[in-house]
C-alpha cells in the first residue's frame, strides 16, 4: 500500500504530533507515504469566505502536483479541513467542466495541469478500510484494556461527503479502538460540531459547542480526534470552560494515530505526547 | 444601507439565491444548526429573506458569519440544497463589500490568505499578528494570549517568519483576482 | 361458433387487484387472481381502521347483485367467486403476445400443507419449536414457523415459513388429518458459489450453508469465480462487493452473461450499501450487510431456494393482464436513517403503529386501556408523527410526494386520541399538510380543533436518545415559524414512510418492456391512469404511484374496464349465466331433517355423549336421524355423505364439521351431487364449538352441541327453497354530461358493446376541456379532446343529444324511464338500465370584491382564456401574482379543490417560459403539489417563482389605485407585510360542482355537504351511489385532474357495464319481499331501504322490489310493524322458533 | 289573524255551532267533521256533516271522548275524495293524525284542520254516568272546564290522560279556537295559523279580536300542573312495573282482546302481526313450553304483545289514553305506555305530532347516532 501524503499547514505547526504519529503508525502498518512535493495551503475556510475560484484553485494546485508526481492515485490526508477542501475540488471538477477550465487557466501560471485523476482519502478512511486491522490487533499489547475512550470525528471528514462512515451516526473508529483492547465510550457527540471556526471570531458560540462535547465526555479516559482544528479546540479551551461552568472538564485529548501508536508499543516520546496541550497524565498513568 | 449597495448585494448573491431556490422553509437547517442560538436570524428565515430579496436584512445580521461549516444542514436538507456553500457565498459577498459589521471575520480570513499568498503555507503567528493589527483593537490579542504562549512553549508556533520565498502564490492569487474581476 | 370466454390475469390480490377482479367477474369474465404472498387482501389486511370513520369497510367492495356467486364475508378473510381463480404464493414471471392473446408465465411455490385437509385445529402450532418475528404484526410480536397467514383468514389453513422452518417434522407427526407433508428436498443439487477475498468469510459461510445441506464452492476473486462458472453451473452466487481486481458489481454483470438465471446476493459493508442497492437494479436479488448473522444468511438462502427451486412454473393463455402489485413503503433502515429506525426504541413506522393498536395489537393494555410502548411496555403519553420520511427528500432518492401520508398520519393521530384518550399528546410535524380531497381538509380541522392533535410546520431532522436516560424518550429538535428552536421528548415517534416502487413489478416491467418513470414506478400513457406502454397490459391501483383507497379503487376499476375492452374487442364472450333449476316446492312436505356430525379424525367418546345427544334430538318431530361419520374432508368421507343423503332422502340437512368442509363451495358441490338445495343445508363449525369446552367436560360440550344443532334445526324446518329472483334489466346506458368524464364513460361503455345515450345541455361537447390548452406535463389537451369527440360522434353505439336536459325520470325494477327535453325539439322518453351523472363542475367565479377586469384580475380559467385570445400577452407582463384558495378552504367552501395548485404551477412555468424576467408570485396556504407533481413545484422554484405562504388570519388583499394594482399579503415565516405591484392577478377560486340536487334526487343519488355527488362509500365504492344503477364521475364527483376524471369515468363505466352485461339480474338468496295483503303502504320500508330497492307501484297500490338491488339487510323488516316486509328465510316465525329451541 | 266567535244567546255552545254553520255554508267547504250528539241518545260521536241544518246537534266541546278521531280522519283522507273537509280535532287527535300523515295513512291536502284548547275528557264509563246526571249541559261544561278551577266535573275526575297531558294546546292546525284565559262572556277567540286557514277565516268576516290577556299565564299553569301530575304518575307506574315479575302481574288480566291496539290512533297496520301465522303456534309448541316450565297460562304472548306494541309504536304515542279507555279488564295500559314512550321519544329526540316534517325515528339515520347504534363509544 502506497499513498501520496498531504500533511497540510497545521501538521507542520500546531499539530506536529499528528503528523509524526501518522507517519509512525503508517510505517508500522506497512503503508508507504510519500509527501507531495511543494504542497501548499488548501485555503482552509478562509479562501471559501473570500473567493469562490480561489477556494478551488488552492486545493487544485496540490492535486495537480500530486498528479505530476505520478506515483499513486490516492492522497492520504490526516487533516479533516484539508481533506474536505481537496475532496470538494476532486468532486466538483468531475461535474463542472467550465470551472476545471478556469482552474487550469490559473494553474497555468505555475505550469501545472489538473486532469482529475486523484482520489483524496482521509486518514480514518484508510485506517478503517485499507489497513489490515489484524496488524493493529497483533501489534497491540493490551495496555489499553482498562481504558474507555471517546471517538470524536468532527464534521468535515463525515460531511457533506458520505464516503466511509454514516455522517449522522459515525462508528468507523469503533473497530480500531476495540482492536487495541480498549472500550468505546457510548456517546452521541462523535459527529457533532466543536465550533472551532467560531472560537476565534465569536468565542461564546465556539465555547458553547466545545463545552457540550467536553461535558458529554465525562466518564471517558480520553477523547480521540482525527482533525487538528478539533484537537486544538478541544484541548485549548478546557480550563476556560471548566472555570466558567464550575466543573472539572479536564480530559486528555489524543490524535487517533497517537493512541494507536501507543497501543502498538510506541513510546510516549515516539508519538510526541509531550506536544499535546491537554493534560495527558491521567491517561498515561492508566494506560502504561 | 444605500440602494447601490443593495443592488450590488443582489448581484453578488444571485448564485446563492439560485442555490436555495427550491427551499420550502421546512426548518430542517435551523434545527440542525449548532450555532442557531447565536444567530439573530435563523437559517430558515435567512433563506426566506434571500429568496424575497431582503438583502438589507441579511447583511445587517451576522448570522451567516456564525456558520461553522459543520455541514449538518447540507446533509439533512430534504431538498438537497448545498446550504453550507450558500453560506460561504454570503460570506464572500460580505467580505468583498467590506461591510463594517463583518470586518472582524473578513480581516481574519484576509490576514490568513495574505499569509498563504506570501508563503504558500500558513503560519499561525504571522497571520494572527496581522489580524490583530488590522483590527486596530489593542485589547483583543490578550484574549488569545494564553493559548499563544502555550503554543510557543510547545514549540508549535514560530515567531520568526517562515520558510518559502516571499510571494510564493502571488501569481495564482493575481490570476484568480483577474478572472473573478 | 362457440367463442372462448374472456379471461384476464390480475397480478396482485390486494385492494386494487380484488377490485379489478371482482369488476370483471361480476361482468361475467373469468379472472385468474394471483399474489406473491400467502393470503389475499394485501396491505389492508393489516389495517383495522380507515379514514374517516375509523373503521374498516373492505366488505363494501363485494358484489351487490347475484351475490351468491361470491363469498359474502370480510375480504380480509378471503374471497371466493365463481368466476375468479386464486393462486397464492405465485409470481408473474413474464408476459408475451398481443392483447386478446397473451401468454403469461407464473411461478407458484407449493404449500407443504394441503389446505383442503387442514382443519385449522392448531395442533401443529403448539408443537412447532421455532419462534420468529410475526411479519403480519410488522415484527412487533412473535409467531411460530407454522402459522395462520392472517388472523382473519377464512380458509383457516396453516402455512409454513420455509425460511424459518427447521424441518424437524413435529408438525407432520401431530397433524390429525395428515395435511402436513414435507416434500423430499434435494438441497444437494442446489449449488452455491461464495465469492469473497477474505478467507475467513468464505470458510465460515461454506460451513454454515453445508450444514443446511447445500452444495457450496468458494472463490477468492471475481476472476476465480468466473473461471469456476465456466466449468460448472451454479444456482446461486453470494459475492462480496469490495474485492481487489474485479469488484462484486462487475462480477455480477459478467456472471449474469454466463448464466442469466443465476440468483445473486451481494455482500457489503456499510459504505457500499448504495452500490448494493445499485446492484439490485442490475439483477441482484438481495444483499446482506456485513457483518451478518448466520441465521439471516440461511433464511435468505432457504427462501430463495424455495422460491426458485421448489416453485413450479405454469403457463396460462389469457386476453389481458392487470398489474396491481401496489407500492412498497420506504424502509428507513435500508436508506437514510437519521431517525434511528430499528435502532432507537420507540421509533416505528405508520404501519407498525396501526398493528400496535389493532384489535389484537401488542400496544393495548387491556387493563388500563392505555397505549403501551412496544419495547419498554410502559404507557405512552406523548407521541409525534414525522411526515415525509423517504418522500420529498432528495437524500433518500425521492423528490416526489407520496400523496397519502398526511391523511394517514392524521387518521393515526385521531385514532390514538380516540382509543387512548385526550391526555395522550399527539403532534404531527409536517412540511405541507396535503389534504387533497373534498373531505380531507375538514378532517384535518376535526383533528386539530375537536380532537386536539397538534400540527407543527417543521421538519425534525433526527432523533436521539440519551442512552443513560432511556426513560426520557426520544429527543427531537425543531424550529417553529417564529424561529424559536424547541427541544422536546416523545415516548413514541411514528415515521410516515413514503412510497417506493414495487420491486417485483419493477423487475417484471424491466424484463417485459413495460415502461416505468424516472423513479421506477409503472408509467401510464398520456391522459390515462391505467394503460401501460404495452397494449393489453394495464396498471391498477397504486402501482403507478401511491394512491389512497378511493383513488386506488377507482383506478383499479378503470383497469378492469381496460381489460373488458380488450376482451370485447378480441371477440371473447362472457360466461353464460346458469339458469338454475327451479327447486322443488317443499312448502307442503313435512320437513325431514338429517343431522350429520363429522368426527374430524378424533375420538368422539372423549368429547361428546352421543347417546344423550341422540335422545335430545329425537324429541323433535322433524328429525330424520343423527349420524356420526369420520374424515369428511377426504374423498372417501365425502362419498359416504353423498350416499347417506341418497339413501335417507332427507329434504333438509344439518351438518356439523370443520370449517373447510362447510364453506360455500363445498355446499354448492353437495347441491350438485345430491339435488338438495344448498339453502336447505345448515352448517355448524364443530371445531370452534368444541373449543369452547376444553378438557373433558363431556356433559357441557354435549349440551352446547345440542343447543347449536337445535337452533339450526329450527332455522331449517321452516325453510323453503326460494327460487332466486330475477329481474329483467335494461341494457342501455344514459350518460348525463358531455365533458371529458361523460365522453369517456360513454365511449367506454360503448366500447364494451352497449348502447349509450349521451346528453349535453350545451351546444358543444367537451366541457371544461374546451378552454384548456396544455396540461402541466405539456400534453396537448385540444388534440386529445378532438380525438375523443371524433370517436364519440362516429361510434355506432352512441347517440348524442346536445342542448338537452332531463325533464323527469321514473324508476322501476331494472329500468329507468327518463324524459329528455331538447331546447327546440321537445320531449323524448328514453328507457335505460343505468345512469351516469357526469354533470361536471366549474371554476368558482371571482368574488366581486376582488375582481376588476380592467386591472387584469382573473380566475385561472379567465387567465388561460385571455392568453389564448391574446387579450393579454405573457411576454409583456412584469409581475404576476397568483392567489391560491381564493374564497375557498374557509368557512364558505371548506374543501380543497385539489387541482388549483397544479394549475398555478402550470401557469407559472408557462409565464417563466414565455418571459423569464416576469416575476411570478404564488400566494398559497399549503402547496398541494401531490405525487409526482412535486417536481413542478421544485421546477417553478428553480425558475425563480416566489412563493408566499399566508394563513387565514392574513388573507391577501388587492388594492386598485389609478392604474396600479397592489397585492398586500403577509409573509408567514418572516412575519412581515409584503406589497407586490402586479400587472396581473390570478385567483385560484376552486371547483364548484354542477350537479343539481333535484336531478340527483330523481335518480336516487344524494349530494354531500358541498353539493358534490355523495359516494355510496367514499373509500370502497367511490363512483357508486347507493342506487346500484347510478354512478358519477369527473368534477361532479370530486375535484380532479383530467387523468383522474378519465379514471373515474372508466371506473363508472365498468361499474355500469357490470350491470348492463346481464339481460336478467339474479338476486341474492336472502332478499326481502312484501306481503301485500297486510301491507298498510306506509312507505316506511321505501324510505329506509338504503339501496333504493323498494318502489311504490301507485297503479297497483303495492310496494314492489328490485330483488337485484335488495341486499337482504332486513332494515325493511325491522321498520315494518305488521311484518309485511319479510326477509326470505329469516322470518319472524323462524327467529322465534330458534329462540325457543335454544332455550328448550 | 285573530278574530272573535261571539256568543249566541249568551251561549258559547251555540256560538260555536253558528261558527261551524257559517263554515259549512261557505262554498269552499264541502263537509265538516266534528262531534255530534246522536239523535235519541246522550252519546256524542264524531260525524261527517254535509247539511248545515244538522249542525244544531253538533257539540264541538264536550267531555265525551269515545275514540281518538285521528283514525277516522285517516279514513277520510288517505286518498283524494275531491271534497274539502273542515275537521275539528282535540290536540291529541291532531298530533296522532300528523303521525298518520307521516305514515302515508292520511293527508291534509283536502282538509282544513281546526284545533282547539283541549276541553278534557272523562272516561267513557264516567261520561255515561255524567251524561245521565247532566244531559245537554254543554254551556255549563264549557264554563267549568275553561275556568281556573277545573279539576273535577260534577264530582267526576277527568281522565288521567288529560290530567297528565303536556300538550293540551293545538299545534299543526290551520285554524285554532282559543278558550283558556279568554273572557268567554265576550266570546271566543279564533285564529288562522296557516295560509289556508287565513283564507277560510277571512271570508267569515268575523269581528277582530285581541290576544287574550291571561292566556299565557293559564297555559303556563296548566302545563306545570299537568307536568307535575305526569311525573308523579310515571314514578308510580314505573314502581309498579319495574321487573319482569311486576310487569307480568300488571298484565295478568289481559285477555288478548286487542282493544287497546284497535283504539290506538297510531297503531295503523292493516293487519297486526299478532293476527298472523307468526303467533299461530303449532299445538306441539304449547306442549313444549308447558313441558319446559311445568305449566303455562293461556292465552300466551300477552305481555309479549304489549311489549311489541311498545316497540313498534311508543315513539309515536300521543298520550290520548284511549287504550286504557278501551280495556275491558281495566288495565291502565296508557300509564305504562306513556312511561315507556317518554323514554323512547327522548332517546330519539322525537316529539310525535308536533312537526309534520320530522321523520319517524326509524326512517332516518343520523351519523351522530352511529356511535350509539354500533356501541362504539368515543372518548371525548
Beta-strand percentage range of chain A: 5-15%
CATH class of the largest domain in chain A: Alpha Beta
Sheet-strand content of chain D, in percent, reads: 5-15%
Helix proportion of chain A: 40-55%
Net shape of chain D:
globular
Alpha-carbon distance between the two ends of chain A: 31 Å
What can you tell me about this protein's structure?
The complex is a heterotetramer of chains A (288), B (181), C (1144) and D (380). Chain A has two domains: 2-124, Glutathione S-transferase Yfyf (Class Pi), Chain A, domain 2; 133-287, Rossmann fold, CATH 3.40.50. Chain A is α/β, with parallel strands linked by helices and 288 residues long. The longest helix of chain A has 18 residues, at 52-69. In chain A, 50% of the residues lie in helices and 10% in strands. Chain B has helices at 3-12, 14-19, 28-32, 43-51, 55-59, 72-76, 83-97, 103-119, 124-135, 140-153, 170-180. Chain D has 380 residues and is of the alpha/beta class. Chain D folds into two domains: 2-221, no CATH class; 243-374, no CATH class. Helices cover 40% and strands 11% of the residues of chain D. Chain D contains 15 helices and nine strands. In chain D, strand 4, helix 3 and strand 5 (111-116) form a beta-alpha-beta unit. In chain D, helix 2 (70-77) packs across helix 3 (91-102) and helix 8 (215-241) packs across helix 14. Residues 375-380 of chain D have low confidence and may be disordered. The chains are: A alpha/beta (288), B mainly alpha (181), C alpha/beta (1144), D alpha/beta (380). Chains A and B meet through helix 3, helix 4, helix 6, helix 10 and helix 11 of A and helix 6, helix 7, helix 8, helix 10 and helix 11 of B.
Amino acid at each position: 500500500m502506497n499513498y501520496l501524503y498531504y500533511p497540510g499547514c497545521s501538521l507542520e505547526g500546531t499539530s506536529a504530533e499528528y503528523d509524526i504519529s501518522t507517519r509512525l503508525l503508517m510505517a508500522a502498518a506497512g503503508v508507504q507515504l510519500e509527501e507531495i512535493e511543494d504542497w501548499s495551503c488548501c485555503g482552509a475556510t478562509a479562501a471559501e469566505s473570500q473567493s469562490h475560484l480561489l477556494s478551488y484553485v488552492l486545493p487544485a494546485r496540490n492535486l495537480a502536483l500530486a498528479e505530476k508526481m505520478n506515483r499513486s492515485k490516492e492522497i492520504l490526508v490526516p487533516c479533516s479541513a484539508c481533506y474536505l477542501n481537496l475532496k470538494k475540488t476532486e468532486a466538483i471538477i468531475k461535474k463542472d467542466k467550465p470551472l476545471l477550465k478556469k482552474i487550469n487557466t490559473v494553474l497555468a501560471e505555475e505550469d501545472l495541469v489538473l486532469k482529475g485523476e486523484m482520489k483524496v482519502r482521509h486518514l480514518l478512511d484508510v485506517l478503517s478500510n485499507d489497513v489490515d486491522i489484524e496488524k493493529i490487533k497483533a501489534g497491540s499489547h493490551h495496555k489499553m484494556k482498562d481504558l474507555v475512550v471517546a471517538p470524536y470525528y468532527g464534521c468535515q471528514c463525515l460531511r457533506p461527503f458520505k464516503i466511509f462512515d454514516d455522517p449522522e451516526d459515525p462508528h468507523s473508529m469503533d473497530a480500531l479502538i476495540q482492536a487495541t483492547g480498549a472500550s468505546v465510550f457510548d456517546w452521541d457527540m462523535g459527529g457533532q460540531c466543536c465550533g472551532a471556526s467560531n472560537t476565534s471570531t465569536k468565542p461564546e458560540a465556539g465555547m458553547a459547542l466545545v463545552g457540550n462535547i467536553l461535558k458529554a465526555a465525562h466518564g471517558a479516559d480520553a477523547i480521540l480526534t482525527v482533525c487538528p482544528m478539533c484537537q486544538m479546540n478541544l484541548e485549548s479551551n478546557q480550563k476556560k470552560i471548566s472555570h466558567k461552568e464550575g466543573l472539572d472538564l479536564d480530559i486528555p485529548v489524543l490524535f487517533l494515530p497517537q493512541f494507536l501508536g501507543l497501543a502498538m508499543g510506541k513510546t510516549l516520546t515516539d508519538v510526541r505526547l509531550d506536544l499535546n496541550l491537554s493534560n495527558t497524565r491521567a491517561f498515561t498513568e492508566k494506560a502504561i | 444601507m444605500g440602494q447601490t449597495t443593495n443592488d450590488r448585494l443582489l448581484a453578488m448573491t444571485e448564485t446563492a439565491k439560485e442555490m436555495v431556490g427550491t427551499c420550502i422553509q421546512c426548518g430542517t437547517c435551523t434545527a440542525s444548526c449548532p450555532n442557531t442560538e447565536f444567530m439573530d436570524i435563523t437559517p430558515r428565515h435567512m433563506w426566506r429573506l434571500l429568496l424575497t430579496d431582503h438583502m438589507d436584512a441579511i447583511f445587517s445580521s451576522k448570522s451567516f458569519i456564525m456558520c461553522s461549516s459543520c455541514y449538518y444542514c447540507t446533509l439533512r436538507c430534504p431538498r438537497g440544497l448545498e446550504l453550507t456553500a450558500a453560506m460561504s457565498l454570503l460570506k464572500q459577498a460580505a467580505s468583498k463589500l467590506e461591510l463594517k459589521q463583518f470586518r472582524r471575520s473578513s480581516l481574519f480570513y484576509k490576514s490568513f490568505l495574505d499569509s498563504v499568498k506570501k508563503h504558500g503555507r500558513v503560519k499561525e503567528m504571522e497571520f494572527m499578528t496581522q489580524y490583530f493589527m488590522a483590527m486596530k483593537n489593542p485589547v483583543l490579542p490578550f484574549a488569545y494570549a494564553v493559548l499563544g504562549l502555550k503554543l510557543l512553549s510547545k514549540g508549535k508556533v514560530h515567531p520568526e517568519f517562515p520558510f518559502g520565498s516571499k510571494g510564493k502564490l502571488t501569481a495564482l492569487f493575481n490570476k484568480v483576482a483577474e478572472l473573478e474581476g | 361458433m362457440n367463442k372462448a370466454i374472456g379471461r384476464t390475469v390480475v397480478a396482485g390480490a390486494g385492494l386494487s387487484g380484488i377490485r379489478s377482479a371482482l369488476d370483471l367477474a361480476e361482468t361475467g369474465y373469468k379472472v385468474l387472481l394471483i399474489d406473491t404472498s400467502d393470503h389475499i387482501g394485501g396491505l389492508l389486511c393489516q389495517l383495522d381502521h380507515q379514514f374517516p370513520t375509523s373503521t374498516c369497510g373492505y366488505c363494501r367492495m363485494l358484489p351487490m347483485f347475484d351475490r351468491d356467486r361470491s363469498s359474502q364475508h370480510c375480504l380480509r378473510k378471503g374471497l371466493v367467486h365463481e368466476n375468479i381463480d386464486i393462486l397464492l404464493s405465485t409470481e408473474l414471471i413474464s408476459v408475451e403476445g398481443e392483447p386478446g392473446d397473451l401468454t403469461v408465465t407464473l411461478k407458484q411455490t407449493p404449500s407443504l400443507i394441503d389446505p383442503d385437509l387442514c382443519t385449522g385445529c392448531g395442533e401443529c402450532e403448539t408443537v412447532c419449536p421455532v419462534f420468529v418475528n410475526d411479519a403480519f404484526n410488522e415484527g412487533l410480536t412473535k409467531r411460530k414457523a407454522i402459522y395462520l397467514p392472517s388472523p382473519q383468514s377464512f380458509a383457516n389453513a396453516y402455512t409454513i415459513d420455509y425460511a424459518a422452518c427447521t424441518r424437524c417434522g413435529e408438525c407432520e407427526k401431530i397433524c390429525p388429518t395428515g395435511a402436513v407433508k414435507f416434500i423430499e428436498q434435494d438441497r444437494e443439487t442446489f449449488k452455491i458459489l461464495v465469492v469473497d477475498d477474505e478467507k475467513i468469510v468464505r470458510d465460515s459461510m461454506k460451513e454454515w450453508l453445508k450444514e443446511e445441506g447445500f452444495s457450496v464452492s468458494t472463490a477468492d476473486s471475481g476472476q476465480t469465480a468466473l473461471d469456476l462458472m465456466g466449468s460448472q453451473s451454479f444456482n446461486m452466487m453470494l459475492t462480496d462487493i469490495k474485492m481487489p481486481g474485479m469488484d462484486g458489481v462487475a462480477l455480477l454483470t459478467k456472471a449474469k452473461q454466463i448464466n442469466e438465471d443465476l440468483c445473486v446476493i451481494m455482500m457489503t459493508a456499510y459504505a457500499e450499501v448504495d452500490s448494493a442497492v445499485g446492484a439490485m437494479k442490475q439483477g441482484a436479488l438481495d444483499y446482506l450487510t456485513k457483518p451478518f448473522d448466520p441465521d439471516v444468511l440461511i433464511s435468505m438462502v432457504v427462501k430463495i431456494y424455495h422460491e426458485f427451486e421448489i416453485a413450479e412454473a405454469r403457463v396460462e393463455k389469457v386476453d389481458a393482464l392487470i398489474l396491481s402489485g401496489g407500492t412498497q413503503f420506504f424502509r428507513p433502515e435500508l436508506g437514510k436513517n437519521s431517525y434511528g429506525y430499528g435502532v432507537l426504541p420507540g421509533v416505528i413506522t405508520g404501519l407498525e403503529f396501526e398493528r400496535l393498536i389493532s384489535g389484537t395489537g401488542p400496544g393495548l393494555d387491556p387493563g388500563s386501556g392505555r397505549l403501551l410502548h412496544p419495547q419498554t411496555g410502559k404507557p405512552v403519553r406523548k407521541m409525534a408523527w414525522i411526515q415525509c420520511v423517504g418522500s420529498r427528500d432528495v437524500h433518500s432518492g425521492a423528490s416526489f410526494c407520496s400523496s397519502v401520508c398526511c391523511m394517514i398520519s392524521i387518521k393515526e393521530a385521531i385514532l390514538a386520541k380516540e382509543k387512548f384518550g385526550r391526555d395522550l399528546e399527539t403532534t404531527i410535524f409536517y412540511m405541507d399538510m396535503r389534504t387533497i380531497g373534498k373531505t380531507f381538509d375538514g378532517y384535518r380541522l376535526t383533528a386539530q380543533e375537536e380532537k386536539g392533535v397538534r400540527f407543527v410546520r417543521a421538519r425534525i431532522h433526527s432523533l436521539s436518545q440519551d442512552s443513560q436516560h432511556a426513560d426520557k424518550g426520544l429527543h427531537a429538535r425543531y424550529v417553529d415559524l417564529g424561529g424559536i428552536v424547541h427541544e422536546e421528548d416523545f415516548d413514541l415517534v411514528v415515521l410516515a414512510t413514503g412510497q417506493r416502487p414495487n420491486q417485483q413489478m419493477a423487475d417484471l416491467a424491466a424484463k417485459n418492456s413495460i415502461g416505468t418513470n424516472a423513479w421506477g414506478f409503472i408509467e401510464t400513457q398520456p391522459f390515462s391512469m391505467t394503460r401501460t406502454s404495452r397494449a393489453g397490459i394495464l396498471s391498477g391501483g397504486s402501482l403507478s404511484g401511491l394512491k389512497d383507497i378511493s383513488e386506488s379503487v377507482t383506478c383499479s376499476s378503470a383497469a378492469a374496464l381496460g381489460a373488458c375492452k380488450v376482451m370485447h374487442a378480441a371477440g371473447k364472450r362472457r360466461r353464460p349465466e346458469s339458469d338454475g333449476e327451479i327447486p322443488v316446492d317443499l312448502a307442503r312436505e313435512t320437513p325431514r331433517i338429517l343431522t350429520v356430525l363429522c368426527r374430524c379424525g378424533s375420538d368422539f367418546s372423549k368429547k361428546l355423549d352421543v347417546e344423550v345427544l341422540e335422545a335430545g334430538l329425537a324429541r323433535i318431530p322433524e328429525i330424520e336421524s343423527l349420524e356420526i361419520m369420520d374424515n369428511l374432508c377426504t374423498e372417501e368421507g365425502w362419498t359416504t355423505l353423498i350416499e347417506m343423503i341418497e339413501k335417507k332422502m332427507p329434504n333438509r340437512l344439518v351438518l356439523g364439521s370443520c370449517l373447510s368442509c362447510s364453506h360455500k363451495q363445498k355446499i354448492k358441490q353437495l347441491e350438485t351431487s345430491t339435488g338438495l338445495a344448498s339453502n336447505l343445508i345448515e352448517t355448524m363449525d364443530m371445531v370452534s364449538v368444541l373449543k369452547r369446552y376444553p378438557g373433558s367436560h363431556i356433559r357441557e360440550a354435549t349440551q352446547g352441541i345440542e343447543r347449536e344443532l337445535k337452533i339450526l334445526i329450527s332455522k331449517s324446518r321452516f325453510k323453503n327453497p326460494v327460487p332466486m329472483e330475477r329481474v329483467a334489466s335494461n341494457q342501455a346506458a344514459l350518460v348525463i354530461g358531455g365533458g371529458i368524464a361523460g365522453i369517456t364513460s360513454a365511449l367506454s361503455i360503448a366500447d364494451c358493446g352497449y348502447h349509450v345515450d349521451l346528453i349535453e345541455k350545451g351546444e358543444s361537447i367537451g366541457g371544461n376541456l374546451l378552454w384548456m390548452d396544455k396540461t402541466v406535463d405539456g400534453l396537448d389537451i385540444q388534440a386529445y379532446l378532438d380525438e375523443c369527440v371524433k370517436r364519440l360522434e362516429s361510434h355506432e353505439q352512441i347517440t348524442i343529444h346536445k342542448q338537452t336536459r332531463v325533464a323527469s325520470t321514473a324508476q322501476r325494477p331494472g329500468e329507468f324511464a327518463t324524459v329528455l327535453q331538447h331546447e327546440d325539439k321537445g320531449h323524448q322518453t328514453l328507457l335505460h338500465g343505468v345512469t351516469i351523472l357526469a354533470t361536471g363542475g366549474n371554476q368558482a367565479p371571482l368574488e366581486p370584491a376582488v375582481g376588476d377586469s380592467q386591472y387584469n384580475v382573473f380566475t385561472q380559467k379567465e387567465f388561460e382564456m385571455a392568453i389564448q385570445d391574446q387579450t393579454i400577452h405573457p411576454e409583456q407582463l412584469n409581475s404576476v401574482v397568483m392567489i391560491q384558495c381564493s374564497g375557498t378552504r374557509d368557512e364558505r367552501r371548506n374543501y380543497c379543490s385539489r387541482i388549483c395548485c397544479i394549475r398555478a404551477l402550470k401557469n407559472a412555468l408557462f409565464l417563466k417560459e414565455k418571459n423569464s424576467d416576469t416575476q411570478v408570485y404564488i400566494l398559497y396556504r399549503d402547496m398541494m403539489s401531490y405525487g409526482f407533481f412535486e417536481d413542478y413545484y421544485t421546477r417553478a422554484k428553480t425558475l425563480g417563482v416566489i412563493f408566499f405562504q399566508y394563513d387565514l388570519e392574513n388573507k391577501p388583499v388587492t388594492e386598485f389605485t389609478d392604474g396600479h394594482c397592489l397585492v398586500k399579503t403577509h409573509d408567514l415565516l418572516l412575519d412581515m407585510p409584503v406589497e407586490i405591484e402586479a400587472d396581473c392577478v390570478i385567483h385560484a377560486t376552486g371547483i364548484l360542482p354542477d350537479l343539481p340536487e333535484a336531478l340527483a334526487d330523481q335518480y336516487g343519488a344524494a349530494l354531500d355537504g358541498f353539493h358534490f355527488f355523495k359516494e355510496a362509500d367514499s373509500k370502497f365504492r367511490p363512483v357508486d351511489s347507493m342506487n346500484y344503477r347510478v354512478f358519477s364521475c369527473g368534477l361532479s364527483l370530486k375535484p380532479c385532474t383530467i387523468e383522474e376524471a378519465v379514471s373515474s369515468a372508466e371506473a363508472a363505466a365498468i361499474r355500469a357495464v357490470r350491470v348492463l352485461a346481464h339481460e336478467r339480474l339474479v338476486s341474492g338468496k336472502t332478499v326481502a319481499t312484501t306481503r301485500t295483503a297486510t301491507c298498510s303502504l306506509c312507505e316506511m320500508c321505501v324510505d329506509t331501504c338504503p339501496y333504493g330497492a323498494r318502489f311504490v307501484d301507485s297503479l297497483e297500490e303495492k310496494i314492489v322490489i328490485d330483488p337485484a338491488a335488495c341486499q337482504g339487510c332486513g332494515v325493511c323488516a325491522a321498520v315494518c310493524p305488521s311484518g309485511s316486509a319479510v326477509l326470505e328465510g329469516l322470518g319472524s316465525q323462524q327467529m322465534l322458533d330458534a329462540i325457543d329451541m335454544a332455550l328448550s | 289573524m285573530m278574530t272573535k266567535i261571539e256568543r249566541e244567546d249568551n251561549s258559547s255552545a251555540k256560538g260555536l255551532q253558528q261558527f261551524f254553520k257559517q263554515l259549512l255554508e261557505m262554498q269552499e267547504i264541502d263537509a265538516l267533521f266534528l262531534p255530534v250528539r246522536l239523535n235519541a241518545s246522550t252519546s256524542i260521536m264524531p260525524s261527517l256533516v254535509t247539511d248545515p241544518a244538522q249542525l244544531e246537534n253538533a257539540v264541538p266541546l264536550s267531555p265525551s271522548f269515545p275514540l281518538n278521531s285521528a283514525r277516522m280522519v285517516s279514513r277520510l283522507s288517505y286518498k283524494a275524495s275531491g271534497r274539502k273537509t273542515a275537521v275539528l280535532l282535540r290536540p291529541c287527535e291532531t298530533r296522532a293524525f300528523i303521525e298518520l300523515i307521516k305514515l302515508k295513512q292520511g293527508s291534509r291536502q283536502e282538509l282544513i284542520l281546526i284545533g282547539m284548547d283541549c276541553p278534557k275528557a272523562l272516561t267513557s264509563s264516567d261520561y255515561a254516568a255524567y251524561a245521565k246526571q247532566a244531559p245537554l249541559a254543554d254551556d255549563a261544561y264549557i264554563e267549568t272546564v275553561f275556568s281556573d278551577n277545573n279539576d273535577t266535573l260534577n264530582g267526576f275526575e277527568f281522565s288521567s290522560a288529560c290530567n297528565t297531558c303536556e300538550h293540551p294546546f293545538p299545534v299543526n292546525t290551520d285554524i285554532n279556537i282559543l278558550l283558556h284565559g279568554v273572557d268567554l262572556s265576550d266570546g271566543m277567540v279564533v285564529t288562522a295559523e296557516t295560509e289556508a286557514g287565513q283564507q277560510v277565516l277571512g271570508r267569515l268576516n268575523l269581528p277582530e279580536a285581541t290576544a287574550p290577556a291571561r292566556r299565557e299565564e293559564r297555559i303556563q299553569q296548566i302545563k306545570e300542573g299537568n307536568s307535575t301530575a305526569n311525573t308523579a304518575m310515571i314514578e308510580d307506574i314505573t314502581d309498579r312495573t319495574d321487573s319482569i315479575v311486576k310487569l307480568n302481574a300488571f298484565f295478568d288480566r289481559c285477555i288478548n282482546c286487542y282493544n287497546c291496539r284497535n283504539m290506538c290512533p297510531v297503531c295503523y297496520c292493516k293487519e297486526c302481526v299478532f293476527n298472523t301465522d307468526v303467533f299461530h303456534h303449532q299445538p306441539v309448541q304449547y306442549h313444549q313450553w308447558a313441558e319446559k316450565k311445568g305449566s303455562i297460562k293461556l292465552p300466551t304472548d300477552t305481555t309479549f304483545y304489549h311489549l311489541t306494541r311498545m316497540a313498534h309504536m311508543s315513539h309515536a304515542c300521543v298520550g290520548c289514553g284511549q287504550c286504557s279507555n278501551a280495556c275491558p279488564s281495566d288495565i291502565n295500559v296508557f300509564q305504562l305506555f306513556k312511561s315507556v314512550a317518554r323514554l323512547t321519544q327522548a332517546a330519539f329526540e322525537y316529539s310525535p305530532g308536533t312537526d309534520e316534517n320530522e321523520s319517524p325515528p326509524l326512517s332516518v339515520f343520523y351519523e351522530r347516532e352511529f356511535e350509539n347504534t354500533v356501541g362504539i363509544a368515543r372518548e371525548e
